[in-house]
Design goal:
- The complex is a heterodimer of chains A (338) and B (262).
- Chain A has 16 helices and four strands.
- Chain A is mainly α.
- In chain A, the strands form two sheets. A two-stranded antiparallel ribbon of chain A has the order 1-4.
- In chain A, helix 4 runs parallel beside helix 9, helix 5 (77-93) crosses helix 12 (218-244) and helix 10 packs across helix 12.
- Chain B has ten helices and eleven strands.
- Chain B has a six-stranded mixed beta sheet, with helices on both faces. In chain B, strands 1, 2, 3, 5 and 6 form a five-stranded antiparallel beta sheet that branches.
- In chain B, helix 7 (188-205) links the parallel strand 8 (176-180) and strand 9.
- In chain B, helix 3 runs parallel beside helix 6 (158-170).
- The chains are: A mainly alpha (338), B alpha/beta (262).
- Chains A and B meet through helix 1, helix 9, helix 10, helix 11 and helix 12 of A and helix 2, helix 3, helix 4, helix 5 and helix 7 of B.
Chain lengths: 338, 262
Amino acid sequence: MTTQIRQLPATPSMMSPPPARWPHLSTVVIVGLIAAVPLVFFGDYWMFVAAKILAFGIAAMGLQILYGRAGLMSLAQGAFMGVGAYAGYLVAQSGLGPGIQLLAVIGAASLVALIVGLPTLRLSPLRLAIVTLAFGELFNWLLINSTEWTGGSQGAPVEPLIIFGFDTSYPLDAYLVALAFAVPLTLFALNLGQTHLGRRMMAIRDSEMAAVSVGVFIPKTKIIAFVLSAVFGGIGGWLYSATTGFIAPPDFDLFASVFLLAAVVIGGSRSVAGAWMGTAFIVLLPEGFNLIGQPNLYALAGGLLLATTALLLPDGFSGVFAHIKSLITRMRAQEDRA
Amino acid sequence: MNATGYAMRTDQLTVRYGSFTALSEVSVGLRAGAITGLIGPNGAGKTTLLNALSGFTDVHSGVVYLEEKDVTTLAAHRRARAGVIRGFQTVRLLERESVLDNVLLGAERLHQPSDCSQILGLPAHWKWRTVARSKAADVLELLGLSSDSHRSVDSLPFASRRLVEVARVLISAPPVVLLDEPAAGLDQRGRIELAGALVRVHEQTGLTMAVVEHDIDFVTRLCGSVIAMDSGSHVMTGTPQEVFSDARVQIAYFGRAANAHA
């Protein structure tokens, strides 16, 4: 009986599409071309904007893991960017280099995520959102009231990162350094979709009962998602501060957190690519209003545009692409049958 | 296997929801390596019994044994890891994920590489993934779902969605399987196929199975023994023929005693 079933040949549908271990070559080429655009066409200012997109995009990918994959809403991703930025800043103040700074950024983000997450992850998603909101406010208050350490509400200049001769005080170098982090972090985020850990997170998002029934210990998986998202946020914030050369509490307040959440939702919370598209859109939108000479219009029209996009595209930008892809697949399947 | 011959059993199990007693001093057992049917009218306590066995409800008094170990207070996810895997009366799936991903969720119980090596995408993770996928392919084949494996479950007809859940339960070849009306919503042919597939799995793995089911033909086809329940109490246990011809069961089920069972 056993052998009879085991020997059944895999049906064609089981074999296609092949499980993709690495991104398809075409994807790599397209992403490479997009990443090369600033290098070829951009002057300093737009290079600076591109570096900002990369820094925010890394933080947005973290939030995508937490919100899109595990279904937990956080209103503290901006604060976690701040944790990373200030951890890097404090370590740099004592004269330590980028390697130690990175370790401090990862360590601080993980530690803070554990402190915030451990007592609260048993809460419902909505309550968790409220707790993260409170944490973000507390963090900002702390920054403002520890002036001797952080520069307080006035902020503080940040030493540029110098890695292998690349100096982030130059926009081109800042872009390249951010890219050097963005690429591997994107691969990690994509890989999560191939892991059982990632599937466990989706189960928590969709049905905790199903997750428990197969043996998932929910708090542990939630903590991992929370720490991962905080680490992405921390690294994003650290790179952001290195790019701008300055840190101040308002960069990491509630608005920053909401901004990142909007990026994830508009891009499409169900995919890593969505986090990137949403970030690019949301960073470039005010720049667009600057370009047409109406920067003040952003506050009004920007919000309207965001709301319209969210309403028109329930699955975000990436949902549109997924839809087109499934249409093509279906058309091909019909051709095959014909 | 153990001295009593039961893979799982309850002793004087009572479950209460407020003032309502859903199970009252129920002492029943799932014979190791057998398929046991759980029958009874609505409100008999079949699902509550399944919940108590799988750790999904608090027990007021009494004991739940797994292989003679007291697991009454063992959390549901730990009971699942210990080998008690259940399905739900209302299917609980990852609605917008593929059939394959839904089934692979059930691989949680298989020994996994560490979370860290999964995050970093180390070779151990890819090896595990291949093994889990081949197990998923086997169980999908068995349940006739192979051609749907890359479809999103929310695009499937109701009957197939049930089968996806059954596949999720079976992929890790758990020693104890608890299914809550797996054939609900299936047509006659689907029921016969499902019963056949469950019998085949059972023959291959020798697992212990409990199936809540209303359909007498399905139960007779599938189950070696049947536990009949009514109003939170255990009525009787016996072969399907014995149970369905028993006057008490017939009264509970059909509201009257009949000469010949259905």
